[in-house]
Design goal:
alpha+beta; 34% helix; 25% strand
Length: 79
């Protein structure tokens, strides 16, 4: 995970804000990130460090967080 270009949660909050303002009517807006296993583990660790208990990794290879009205789903790359 490249933290040098900005804080991940801040970046996701900006994306969430922008997606909430899209001028189409949606029932659900989801951003999906497929990452390799190392990146997945780093994201879980980072998000839990920033906000304890934010991410519950059940070992299934996916987790999601809700920021505003936007769901962000992270999945391990299966390859």
């Amino acid at each position: 995970m490249n933290i040098k270009k900005g804080d991940l949660l801040n970046q996701l909050a900006i994306i969430s804000d922008l997606l909430e303002k899209v001028t189409i009517n949606t029932k659900n807006t989801t951003a999906f990130f497929e990452v390799d296993e190392k990146e997945f583990d780093e994201v879980v660790k980072y998000l839990n460090k920033k906000h304890e208990g934010l991410v519950e990794d059940d070992g299934g290879g996916t987790f999601s967080i809700l920021l505003g009205e936007i769901s962000f789903v992270f999945s391990k790359n299966s390859v």
